[in-house]
């Protein structure tokens, strides 16, 4: 064991050493020394490896009797170079200890190499020398190490599979996990595995915290990006491990001033003057804004994204195909790429402005190995055929019949710049027997079935004129895919219901939106019917026109007044009628200027005043303000104000 004195050494052994780097096996003795004059780093240790003579294993030798001529290696391990310590227990009963550390503390990219040493006891003696060595290391450079079992997701530059994620004060390390048991791969998974082109970086992977560009905790694991523009994703083996790992990461990174979390948050940002606000990072309050469909961004690529799948077979893997193609491609042309499969998630348009990550979130009872997929933006710049990402879903718990999964497509590192694809189905539909071949699996609600909600339902559901406004707006196929199909997905209808509604509408000439509303108001969807739910769904779809036509949201102001004037400024203030207003447009121009353009100023929803500067003295101006809730605009409010007369110096 380690002695209290800094310069006192302890001898541990004999031990069998397996050196994979040099491909040799030896019987050795270890002389272990704690921190002292030879090492300025606190918590470090020195391990000297001596060859054990064949004639005398000197199990009871002391440090002063070990011959220097038998020295094989002299290692120094500090908390900054420590990588991993793992105990392995095999079937034969002997315990192995794997010790991994870096050769050079300043090696950021891992080019200097690592030492990976495996020790095991020579015999089943009463005293375990492996346990002594483990205790010595955990009292020294590995004292602050926190270990977690993770799964490395496929399609990365490091090998996929089980791994050990270690968190230190100055760095993190990822090593292969030795104690995992081999599991039989499903034959379907072997077929679906994608072969990644390019060079695979071997483990261990060590990243200094100062070298991280950003990090983010995800619902299924942890993701970080380095300053070398490399992204890594790790799936936690349990929810508790995920919470603990994210807590340890945030604790370790809290002492690193150069690292930012995602989304970035500025502590105590400087307050700009009310009339000249400083630049802020854009936030996207709904999915439509995150898709950025109607923007013309330099370098942006407008694409369509949807999800196809074959009919599920209970107890069998279900394969989802995330299809990303050029905008303007017809649905029939895309379906030709997926014979015998249905679109389980309606297509929609989004604009790619940076690299994509496709992330999967599954309900309890389901699992997949295709957790995350990184796709460079350059891959879409010359896209001719649709890009297809396959996700194989396993049905672990056959008692779980209702499936509601989400596929997130995120751009770059922004938490708000992402879209959500909902895949909903009920596996009990496919277990029903006695059906005819062309008979639909989903039964629509009969029109004459009464609505149980009665007068408590929203007014727009009880008034025919309001329902018809929805028909007229959502029945027409939309360029961006924001029609009744997307509306049905947002309220949580099974994709078989969407297929049945479409067929029923063509056969009977019924409005498909009306059929969707019948399912919604009778409680057959995942989202309960309400005014708030309809407004949020229409915002996510990018249909503020429907919100305004049906007057579901009306941005209003209580007052708009002039607070003060000077010869060159006019100070105006206003009070909103509600707290959900997201932004304002305030405009000004000289009175009587006819068709002269307005000078516009944009302010966020938390702003309540504005100072117009550089105005002409003794001049009357027209002012107006328009409040908005996301993309729903309110009425203009107009006032007039006159600047003061300039003072004349005597």
CATH topology of the largest domain: PH-domain like
**Residue windows where pLDDT falls under 50 for at least 5 positions:** 1-6, 107-111, 180-199, 257-282, 449-454
CATH architecture of the largest domain: Roll
Mass-distribution shape? flat
- Report the radius of gyration as a whole number of Å: 33 Å
InterPro entries: DEATH-like_dom_sf, Death_dom, FN3_dom, FN3_sf, Ig-like_fold
Describe this structure as you would to a colleague.
- The structure is a single chain.
- The protein is built from 13 helices and 32 strands.
- The chain is an alpha+beta fold and 650 residues long.
- It has 5 domains: 9-138, PH-domain like (Roll); 152-172 and 190-261, Roll (PH-domain like); 294-422, Immunoglobulin-like (Sandwich), CATH 2.60.40; 454-549; 557-642, Immunoglobulins (Immunoglobulin-like).
- Strands 11-10-9-8-14-13-12-15 form an 8-stranded mixed beta sheet, covered by helices on one side. Strands 4-3-2-1-7-6-5 form a 7-stranded antiparallel beta sheet. Strands 18-16-17-22-20 form a 5-stranded antiparallel beta sheet.
- Helix 9 runs parallel beside helix 11.
- The longest helix has 15 residues, at 239-253.
- It is flat.
- The termini are far apart.
- The model is unreliable at 1-6, 107-111, 180-199, 257-282 and 449-454 (pLDDT under 50).
